[in-house]
Amino acid sequence: MDRLLSRKRTILLFILPTFILLTVIIVIPIFFSLHYSTLKWDGFSKEVFVGFENYKNLFVNNTDGFIQAVINSLVLALISVGIQIPFSLVLALTLARGIRGERFFRTVYFIPVIISTVVIGQLWMKIYNNDYGMLNTVLKAIGLGSLTDAWLADTKTALASVFVAMVWQYVGYYMLLLYAGAKSISPDIYEAARIDGAGEATMAFHITIPLMKPILAVCIVFAVTGSFKAFDLIYVMTNGGPLHSTEVPTTLMYTTIFTRYQYGYGSAMAIFIIIECLVFTLVINKLFSKNAVE
Amino acid sequence: MVIHMEADLKREPSVGKKKIKVSSVVMYLLLGIFAVIQIYPLIWLFLFSFKDNNEIFSGNAMGLPLVWRASNYSDVLTNGNVAVYLLNSVIVTGITIVLSTILITTSAYAIARMHWKLSHAFLNFILLGMMVPLHATLLPLFIVLKNLGLLNSYLSLILPYTAFALPMGIFIMVGFFRDVPKEMEESACLDGCGIYRMFYSIVLPLVRPAIATVAIFTFLSSWNELMFANTFVSNDNLKTLTVGIMSLSGQQGTHWGPIGAGLVIATVPTLIIYFLFSDQLQKSVIAGAIKG
């Protein structure tokens, strides 16, 4: 057995294809991106090395709205952590109590998560449609016709409208993760607390939520990095418009590279997004592990 | 983390009965309203996919279609090229799942069971791959694929999809292998079975649930992927569903019915898989998040 499991040829055959694929598709491109981000290059003419110039241009005397795009993604992260996750937590705790129909609700809430973002995006464009969309139709039907709007075409409402669709799609995702976290807590703990006369709310705040810290940390990291990396829904619904009002770093990166052919500058955006995600992941995990000690 | 998905936690509150009833009615009402919010847009989509513009614009945007126009569906499938997009998605996703399953199971087995010095380092290398977002590789991959003449090919999507499916898949699978006892393999070994034979007929069947978990995850991410698909494939005959239905809504402009039909067609395979493997799928999402 040990002889079989130590045979070099078999081991190589088992890992080499994976190693090559990961190296070629994931590792090497990162270094290319880093390299591109120091160039002024349109993909056709000769590249010029400009050092950190592209990174400086992201923030100093910026004219293409990158700063606003970063702010938008921060707002999305804030909404996601401040509204979406607490709401998902309430749903998760309610379902995790073992109510009747728990499986049904869990299954239904999760449906939007698995559907393609292109479908969700197209669907919400129809929901927001000025003349025949579901939202305006409902508003008219309940006598709030004055509130109707061309939601995605109006610079004042476009960003919020896109965010609503994003929050709507992923509530079920965080609900499921938090639900699993709540379910993994041993029922014995509740039994003991009940004997001590603790009520449902007390148990939720003093037992369930503190014990769910690891999964809450995971959810917050996902919500924040997911907001920084968000692309699909915005690309489908508004592509950053109208007038850049819904621009986020990824949509701007995409336009910069594939419409304006600023390969170097666009790569600097990509690298910025990765670093931003790494930093926030580390900080959030640090905050949570510190809290756990206290 | 242990997950008792269906664990029966019976916690009957011991307060007065009447009060319980009111609060649980309110609770079910709120849960029900939220279920409607999550589901109704999809039902609305299903309904308008059978309508034509006359019907929608003359006041029936919300209700049941007066006539169920299946022609919307046959229309987009043939004229709108949706049948081709569907086939492309099936091919790309199918090959990605097969390829990634082979690579994931073999690599995970080598890491979890076989004896070699760098196995731990290799696992860490793979974990690093999990941190990398697609965005960081988009432009370099585009340039490489362009230079190799591979833009507008199935391969331009299959290779990146497979690569990005590996890190998490291997991580989940390694955890699974470590929980499987070695006895079966040892007795097979005593019977004089070769390693490849043993891997195929003893090991793989043992980890079938893990393979399903990983495959479902890979299905969802490749079937729904947009950024690579939108960048690497522009030939209409090779587009996958996500990109295809975007161009469909470009062609169809304001024709709600056919666009809706296209969206429904893109969604049905996912929903079928969801309802067939609902619990398995939810577990795979949880496993992905917790391990990842």
Explain what the structure shows.
The complex is a heterodimer of chains A (about 290) and B (about 290). With about 290 residues, chain A is an all-alpha fold. Chain A has 2 domains: about 1-30, no CATH class; about 35-294, MetI-like fold (Orthogonal Bundle), CATH 1.10.3720.10. In chain A, about 75% of the residues lie in helices and about 0% in strands. Chain A has 14 helices and 2 strands, in the order H-H-E-E-H-H-H-H-H-H-H-H-H-H-H-H. Chain A has a two-stranded antiparallel sheet with strand order 1-2. In chain A, helix 3 (about 55-60) crosses helix 14 (about 265-294), helix 5 packs across helix 8 and helix 11 (about 215-230) runs antiparallel to helix 14 (about 265-294). The longest helix of chain A has about 30 residues, at about 65-95. The radius of gyration of chain A is 24 Å and the shape is globular. The N and C termini of chain A lie far apart (about 50 Å). In chain A, about 45% of the residues are buried. The model of chain A has no long low-confidence stretch (mean pLDDT about 90). Chain B has about 290 residues and is mainly α. Chain B folds into 2 domains: about 15-75, no CATH class; about 80-290, Orthogonal Bundle (MetI-like fold), CATH 1.10.3720. Chain B has 14 helices and no strands. Chain B has helices at about 15-50, 55, 70-80, 80-110, 120-130, 135-145, 155-180, 185-190, 195-205, 210-225, 225-230, 240-250, 255-275, 280-290. The longest helix of chain B has about 30 residues, at about 15-50. Chain B is globular, with a radius of gyration of 24 Å. The model of chain B is unreliable at about 1-15 (pLDDT under 50).
